[in-house]
């Protein structure tokens, strides 16, 4: 399954501070969208609203609507835990559970939900997810060894396997390669290209070449100054954003004149 994402007039606050203002965006199912922009413009903050992670901080809140297909994830009675099962997230630093085996890391989502799986069901889920994360061949002979014994790039693919194991509709990635070497980065970028066959992928990246390589659409965010809210300035096909943007701020950013 894969779902579209639509934000309507979304404002995001930390207490009284409005960190992101007035985002309107439509992200197609089965696509890769990159969020770019200078530090502090609200990319991560906005990304974390897409699976209701933002509100885990005290005082953090959201105004506006956020639809997964037709359903407002901020609607009355919607359980954030259900939303987070549909919208998985991969973080900047690989964060496998260090003492858990590779296999149990992949199955962690099921264990947290209290699902009862037979040994063969669990084996099938683990293998499928590890294959889906392009990690199976590297770990199939050591599934019972701790996840922390893998390289950084392998650990990040393990985290992606953990995310895809529960079959989400959307995968959010917050600078997933920033702690990785170039070879591991390429492995993750290849994987992102495969993931979009099944999932809607949204990635925050500081690396403009990466945005250009992996995404079909790009949203450029900017901030007018300290204490001001970040805004989405332009959203278009990635090739347009990088080669022929409409907005002067976008043009200045992608040509390296600031940020
Ligand atoms: N936990 C928090 N409490 C209060 N303000 C926060 C918090 N996290 C972020 N902010 C503020 O929200 C604004 C947007 O930050 P955010 O981290 O989303 O930007 P970003 O574009 O992802 O930046 P970077 O590229 O540096 O990661 C900034 O002004 C930041 O200081």
Question: What do you see in this structure?
Answer:
InterPro entries: AAA+_ATPase, ABC_transporter-like_ATP-bd, ABC_transporter-like_CS, P-loop_NTPase, PstB-like. Residues 5-248 form the ABC transporter domain. There is one protein chain. The protein has 259 residues and is of the alpha/beta class. It is built from 11 helices and 10 strands. The chain has helices at residues 43-49, 80-86, 102-106, 108-112, 119-132, 136-139, 152-165, 182-195, 208-214, 238-243, 248-254, and strands spanning 5-14, 17-27, 32-36, 60-68, 71-72, 87-90, 170-174, 200-204, 217-223, 230-237. It has a 6-stranded mixed sheet, sandwiched between helices. It is globular, with a radius of gyration of 18 Å. The mean pLDDT is 95. Adenosine-5'-triphosphate (ATP) binds next to strand 2 and helix 1.
Which terms would index this structure?
globular, 4-stranded antiparallel β-sheet, Rossmann fold, 6-stranded mixed β-sheet, ABC_transporter-like_CS, binds adenosine-5'-triphosphate, alpha/beta, 259 residues, 11 helices
List the helices and strands and how they pair.
Blueprint: E1 5-14, E2 17-27, E3 32-36, H1 43-49, E4 60-68, E5 71-72, H2 80-86, E6 87-90, H3 102-106, H4 108-112, H5 119-132, H6 136-139, H7 152-165, E7 170-174, H8 182-195, E8 200-204, H9 208-214, E9 217-223, E10 230-237, H10 238-243, H11 248-254
Parallel strand pairs: 3-8, 3-9, 6-7, 7-8
Antiparallel strand pairs: 1-2, 1-4, 4-5, 9-10
Helix pairs in contact: 5-7, 7-8
Bound molecules: adenosine-5'-triphosphate.
């Amino acid at each position: 399954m894969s779902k579209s994402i639509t934000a309507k007039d979304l404002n995001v606050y930390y207490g009284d501070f409005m960190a992101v203002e007035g985002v309107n965006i439509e992200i197609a199912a089965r696509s890769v969208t990159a969020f770019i922009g200078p530090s502090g413009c609200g990319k991560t903050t906005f990304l974390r609203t897409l699976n209701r992670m933002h509100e885990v901080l005290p005082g953090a809140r959201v105004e506006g609507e956020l639809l997964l297909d037709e359903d407002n994830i901020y609607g009355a009675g919607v359980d954030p835990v259900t939303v987070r099962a549909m919208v998985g997230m991969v973080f900047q630093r690989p964060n496998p559970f260090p003492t858990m085996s590779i296999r149990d890391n992949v199955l962690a989502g099921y264990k947290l939900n209290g699902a009862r799986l037979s040994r063969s069901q669990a084996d099938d889920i683990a293998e499928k997810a590890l294959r889906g994360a392009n990690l199976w061949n590297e770990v199939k002979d050591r599934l019972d060894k701790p996840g922390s014994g893998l390289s950084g790039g392998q650990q990040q693919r393990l985290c992606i396997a953990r995310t895809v194991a529960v079959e989400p509709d959307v995968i959010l990635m917050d600078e997933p390669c920033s702690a990785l070497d170039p070879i591991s980065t390429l492995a993750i970028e290849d994987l992102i290209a495969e993931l979009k066959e099944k999932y809607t992928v949204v990635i925050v990246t500081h690396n403009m070449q990466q945005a250009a390589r992996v995404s079909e659409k790009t949203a450029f965010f900017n901030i007018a100054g300290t204490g001001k809210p970040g805004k989405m300035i332009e959203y278009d096909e990635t090739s347009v954003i990088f080669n022929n943007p409409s907005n002067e701020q976008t043009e200045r950013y992608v040509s390296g004149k600031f940020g």
